[in-house]
Design a protein that fits this description.
alpha/beta; 7-stranded mixed β-sheet; 8 helices
Length: 340
């Protein structure tokens, strides 16, 4: 029985349907799991994605030939039944379910099983073969509940504001930034976002995601607001001239990599908050078990560890080599951790 997904130089390919899933080279037909740049690239002839992803995809890729599909709705292409199911990663993220010749495969893209008010929750999909990420595929990665995390972030912000200092929280502009905004307490002070974050916020709001009011720094009329605000920006902005407008600010980085001691120090941040849009180790294991898959294919992350562990659990486990990865800053932090 032929595999429904194989590796090609362009990316992960479905031979029966003649389409790719998150290809990293230009192809005629691409099914996109979500709008992060390592999974959604410019240059494909036709894009298929979950309906909630339309706004963020267009914000990042511009005018593309995009077809959208509501979660759970099935379509047929060259005899392959295809449907998209929530991955819980970011707005519009999806798992790709493929059915053909009595087989069911699910390509999960990136996913998160923890609750997140900014996107649809992860939906386990029963299948024969499950393609899983392993970004945080080590037992040390275990996320704390959001209530604890955001209580910590809010206390940090409030303490800085009481000393007339801005709180600069750096994070990836798409996904983490919106999750931060949805979780913080806006009564503490004004919230300022970087220009890279604003269009993504607008796409989220257009999909009905509740986010607090935010401003650009150029829209601030009272300079006192700059000394008690929360600033949400990408990590690159923290080392640019833009950040000087906030004076003697305190800085923090929100990332799953902050779980590992030393990453905050290497990044030069005052604080590190463990916040990720990927599943932690227990989340990965529970998601895999919920699929009922007897065969698991592991992609980007701690691949050898995951494959070995899953084989020890009696599963048929192997790997695909892909070009997926997190944004550059987080990848650098991971490299620092692995080389330490």
């Amino acid at each position: 029985m032929s595999d429904l997904v194989v590796q090609r130089p362009e990316g992960l390919y479905c031979p029966q349907g003649d389409f790719y899933i998150d290809p990293w080279r230009p192809v005629a037909r691409a099914v996109i799991t979500h709008a992060h740049s390592d999974h959604a690239r410019y240059g494909h002839g036709h894009y298929l994605a979950a309906a909630p992803a339309e706004g963020v995809l267009r914000a990042r890729l511009g005018e593309i030939n995009l077809q959208t599909l509501p979660y759970g709705e099935r379509i047929q292409h060259h005899g392959v039944t295809l449907s998209l199911h929530p991955a819980g990663h970011v707005l519009g993220s999806a798992q790709v379910r493929l059915e053909h010749g009595g087989q069911v495969w699910v390509a999960s893209g990136d996913y998160k099983v923890a609750p997140d008010p900014t996107c649809d929750p992860f939906e386990p999909v029963r299948c024969d073969v499950f393609i899983t990420e392993s970004t945080f595929g080590l037992p040390i990665y275990r996320w704390c509940p959001d209530e604890e995390l955001f209580a910590d972030i809010n206390a940090w912000w409030a303490r800085n504001a009481s000393h007339a200092r801005a709180s600069v929280l750096t994070c990836y502009s798409f996904g983490k930034a919106q999750r931060v905004l949805a979780g913080v307490d806006p009564s503490i002070g004004p919230i300022i976002v970087h220009g890279a974050v604003r269009p993504l916020n607008e796409a989220y709001r257009a999909e009905g995601v509740a986010l607090p009011d935010t401003r650009m720094v150029t829209e601030v009329t009272d300079k006192a607001d700059l000394r008690r605000c929360l600033v949400v920006c990408p990590p690159s902005a923290a080392s640019s001239p833009w950040i000087r407008r906030f004076g003697d600010a305190r800085t923090a980085f929100a990332s799953g990599w902050m779980q590992v001691r030393g990453n905050r120090r290497r990044g030069g941040y005052d604080r590190g908050f463990v916040l990720s849009d990927h599943a932690d180790w227990p989340g990965l294991m529970s998601a895999i078990a919920a699929t009922g898959a007897h065969r698991v294919i592991v992609t980007h992350g701690s691949v050898p560890v995951m494959v070995r562990y899953l084989r020890e659990q009696g599963l048929q486990a192997e790997s695909f080599a892909t070009e997926y990865g997190e944004d550059v800053v987080e990848a650098d932090l991971q490299a620092g951790q692995e080389n330490a």
